[in-house]
């Protein structure tokens, strides 16, 4: 009787392993999701400022001087556009992720605009 129960558990474990092999994402998919790639956009400073005013000033201040979040007046002196893009897309700490709020192109535009602030 015990043999049949153990065989059943073994069979169920093997079936579960096979199902997970085909349904879990691979390393490349996980890496792509973990580090989104920044789309290429032409910088539109007016649109970037509008996005920042609509989404960022409540935490980073109306002059980007800081507040709840850090100051962004010199963001480009220590962050690349890609780093800013990843941070805005995924969020970090108390900063929320904006990947579902803003389009990728909007985030890339803001990242380029902030990267120019040195």
UniProtKB/TrEMBL annotation:
GO annotation, cellular component aspect: membrane
Keywords, in A-Z order: Electron transport, Heme, Iron, Metal-binding, Transport
Gene Ontology molecular functions: electron transfer activity; heme binding; iron ion binding
Binding site for heme c: 56, 59-60, 95
Protein name, UniProt field: Cytochrome C
Keyword Transport: yes
Annotated source species: Paenibacillus crassostreae
Residue ranges occupied by any Cytochrome c domain in the UniProt entry: 43-118
SUPFAM superfamilies from the UniProt entry: Cytochrome c (SSF46626)
PANTHER family: CYTOCHROME C-550 (PTHR37823:SF2), CYTOCHROME C-553-LIKE (PTHR37823)
Organism superkingdom: Bacteria
Post-translation changes: Binds 1 heme c group covalently per subunit.
